[in-house]
Amino acid sequence: MNWLAICEESALPVFGGIAAWVEGKAVAIFNLGEQGIFAMDNTDPATGVGVLSRGLICDLQGDIFVASPLHKQHYSLTNGQCIEDESLSVELYRIKCEQGKVLINTAIVGGINDE
Amino acid sequence: MGCIKTGLDLKPKLLVIGNGMVGHHFIEQLCDQGMNEQFEVEVFGCEKLPAYDRVQLSKYFETGSPDALMLASVDEYAKRGIRLHLGKEIVRLDTENRTVYSSDDEIWSYDKLVLATGSYPFVPPIQGKDRPQCLVYRTIDDLEQISRAALSANSGVVIGGGLLGLEAANALLTLGLDTHVVEFAPQLMPVQLNDKAGELLCEKIQALGVSVHTSRATTAIVAGEHARHRMMFNDNTFLETDLIVFSAGIRPQDTLARQNCIEVGERGGIAVDDHSLTSAPDVYAIGECALWEQRIFGLVAPGYQMARVALSHIAAGVSGSAATQFKGADMSTKLKLLGVDVASIGESRGFENAQYVEVSDNQSGTYKKLWLDETGQYLKGAVLVGDASDYSLLLNQYLSGEKIETPAISLLQQDSDAPMAFNDDAIICSCHQVTKADIVERVVAGDHSLAAIKDCTKAASGCGGCGALVQEIISQTMEAQGLETQKGICSHFEHDRQALFHLCQVDNISNFTSLIGKHGTVDAAKRGLGCDICKPLAASIFSSLENEYVLAVEHANLQDSNDAYLGNLQKDGSYSVVPRIAGGEITPDKLIALGEIAKRHDLYTKITGGQRIDLFGAALSELPTIWQALIEQGFETGHAYGKSLRTVKSCVGSTWCRYGVQDSVGMAIELENRYKGLRAPHKIKFAVSGCTRECAEAQSKDIGVIATDKGWNLYVGGNGGMRPRHGDLFATDLSTSVLMQYIDRILIFYTRTASRLQRTSVWLESLEGGLDYLKSVIIDDNLGLAAELEIQMQKVISTYQCEWKTSLESPEFLTRFSEFVNPVQEPNADVEQYRYSRGQRFPVDAKGGAGTISVKNIDLCTVDNDLDGLATRVSSAELFEVSAQKECEV
Ligand SMILES: Cc1cc2nc3c(=O)[nH]c(=O)nc-3n(C[C@H](O)[C@H](O)[C@H](O)COP(=O)(O)OP(=O)(O)OC[C@H]3O[C@@H](n4cnc5c(N)ncnc54)[C@H](O)[C@@H]3O)c2cc1C
Ligand code: SF4
To answer: Which stretches make up the Nitrite/sulphite reductase 4Fe-4S domain (chain B) (predicted)?
Structure first.
């Protein structure tokens, strides 16, 4: 288990996203308060540009998504799948907060977030 | 008389005496029906000005000029072949010989005569009433006199605490006078309000600095010791003042009728029948001078009805069409007096044996009373002070005459958008008189969207206030039919943009959490997250209404890609920076400064179609530094990232151009500075040309202004881009102040009523009645909204802020621009990201770009290159509203 401390929990904006460098990779972190904290690759798979942390959070089809700020494809925060294009998906990371610190597990998970 | 005659001089003669609001309305209707061709029409007005908007009379004090109030002009009448004689009083009428005489002894004969002489202020016969600076409040001329008198006055008294008296008091207050109201009755507005309501109104008005003296009759006005006058009262007290305005009621101007034994009422007023015909053949009386079933109607709407009725009777004589009848009018009123909401409905002062419900809330300063019949089952009257939000529902209940099924107090505790309270024939849209049944019928017939209902019933296409209600009725009807209801803007709201705007406005909602909590669907409210459709929309509405800093904590996470970081997101994830260059005018020093900043940050530099300079390739974290430098050099944000005013393009105009007739650059700068920062359903572009050669291409803009030798012509609803449209000529030869007044009104009306991402061009086409309707709302103020629209615009203008300046001044906002929580961990930069060409930096082509988006599942995708530089999800209904623009500032 490679849990890496990234930053203080207090450094995360609430209900918004921010990016973090994790072992040389950009990861988008979304802190949705009581609805959980999520981490995914920051790169928008449709364009290859690192912008997902700047996307808007959306509640659609019973799941939570981030809309890419570039072309508005929606990626699930819980399974990485893109709504508009089945062939696109984003890698998810495990993330948790402990003792005021944000920890990310660099081992990629295919789907479910464990927090 | 048989009226169909041919040959020019054989046309029958139609004379109209009085060119007030009603007389003018008569002429307008006459021309609309082409009847100006069939009659030789002459109009006589005592006043030196042609018809103006008396209802808005007090606005004169805002500008000190009647310009904005004018309804008619001699030229316009002449164009329609009508002669308007101003400053001409008709002093004698001879019904025997069918002639009228003016005070300078001219004579005219008539075949049809319309008396529209209005009324005059009643001045009680008090000793000293003719002393100088004892004035009345009825005409522009009166107001000019009051303004002049106020210059040398410290205090002013209004005699009469009715509706008009309070309006006059407000005027004195704004003229800076120590203001008093003296009322004979024990309370204010004795005609409309009961004692308690009058008391509350009195408290509220005193809180504004007006002294109210009730139960006082003035017995004499004599010379004062400390002021010009001393007013003596019946209780042996007195009050000194420099200026007195009488507002003790009005009397119908019926002198001409009396001379000829035309039937008049006991207490005045020219008696008319259901066709507005007087007792003399071919003589009609309309408006405030007319008495119908022993009643005078002191409001403009019934006067307009009489004008139409009289006209239809005249037309019937010509063409044999059926004449309509006047059936009386409801005198319920709702207004804001000195900022206090006051409404009265029906028998608002109560009556014998009435049952009542009274709610008096001294904490919020509201008072409401309902009057019910003896059985307590029917609403007969109501009075509301301090909060008139129940007015429409109550008025409906009253007018419908339906039995109240629940305890009457529930009428005051209704959810403002609970349509179940409406009966089938309740009027939902009062602008267009659409009933609930009309809407239900169309929904059952298959029109399931608000847009479709607006189209076919006109409901919600007026002031838009009923939009939310109409939507509810649609949803309910569909549910009753077992149909799945059409969704609103997105899966979280069942409302369209206009309805949401209205809800935010009336409920004072200014954050997304409350909006989704209160008006979102059940599921949406539970999660509270919303989506990329409703959040930016809400943010835009909040800014249109409150104009708060867009990145304030409660708004920041709502903003779309560009607004979210106050820059325009580019394909490589960098931003572009566009400072405002109002009117396209820039000093060499600023140009140099801009160049230096661009050079320092290696920004790709390009001149946009909107005559400003766009700097590309700034990383998110670089934005604050770049803007700091720009602001130090005197620049401010250009709002290129917002759905807001972009640019006001201009040609060089009369300052340099040989052909120019006005200073188009000066005007462009003024307009751009006035409207900068206004958040709207979509971006807005203006242009100003200095003469008809139109070098600024103003007709392709949302708002186009073209100079004439007399002023400015205003065009509305132009568009460039994918769906080009020439703007419609809205008004001609406007003065600068009227031009801005119209633009103020148009823009706010647009932000209130347009759909999401609807440009003005499409909006204008979608308005039922199109350009003429817009003119009637903006110029004629048919919806009575103009003042409200202007106030809202004033609020936006006065709360303008450069969002970048605010951001830089507040470190807590600046953290938003740190893209990474742990920037020190950044790996070495990927130098391959950029290439150089033609002396500037460009992104190396990454994959993607708007052309390669694949679209699945979700309705439709289209490109609005200017929007966010991106594709946006739109419902198919909205597709036609979104367009890619050529002059984009991506
Ligand atoms: C301050 C103020 C606020 C008001 N607010 C409202 C409101 O909120 N809502 C509302 O519905 N109503 C309001 N009213 C009332 C409304 O203005 C009148 O109902 C309306 O103007 C009546 O129109 P009219 O054409 O009948 O009369 P007027 O507008 O009075 O016009 C009559 C014209 O005829 C002219 N005239 C008279 N005799 C002769 C003659 N012998 N020869 C030639 N010309 C003659 C007069 O000079 C005058 O110009 C307000 C009025 C005032 C003064
Ligand atoms: S529009 Fe008229 S004033 Fe403006 S540049 Fe062209 S010719 Fe000159």
So the answer is: 642-767
- Answer yes or no: pTM beyond 0.90: no
Q: Is B727 in the pocket of ligand 1 (CB under 6 A)?
A: no
- Into how many domains does chain A fold? 1
Ligand 2 atom closest to B689 (CA): 1
Q: Give the residue, by CA position, lying nearest to ligand 1 atom 24.
A: B118
ipTM of the complex: 0.89
Higher pLDDT, B364 or B260: B260
Show the CA angle centred on residue A17, arms to residues A14 and A21, nearest 5°: 120
Cα-to-centroid distance, A10 and ligand 1 (Å): 66
CB-CB contact of B120 with B138 (8 Å): yes
Nearest residue on chain A to B536, judged by CA atoms?
A56
Element (H, E) at B583: none
Question: Which fold, B123-247?
Answer: FAD/NAD(P)-binding domain (3.50.50)
Give the gap in angstroms from C-alpha B159 to the nearest C-alpha of chain A. 59
Instruction: List, chain by chain if needed, residues with CB within 6 Å of any ligand 2 atom.
Output: B 651-653, 657, 659-660, 664, 689-691, 693-695
Domain boundaries along the sequence of chain B:
13-120+252-319, 123-247, 330-418, 419-487, 497-550, 562-642, 644-802, 831-889
What's the CATH code, domain B13-120+252-319? Answer: 3.50.50.60
pLDDT at B430: 59
The answer to whether B154 and B177 are in contact (CB under 8 A) is yes
B258 in helix, strand or coil?
helix
Task: Report whether B690 contacts B660 (CB < 8 A).
Answer: yes
Per residue in B1-33, pLDDT (tens digit) is 333 334 445 789 999 999 999 999 899 889 988
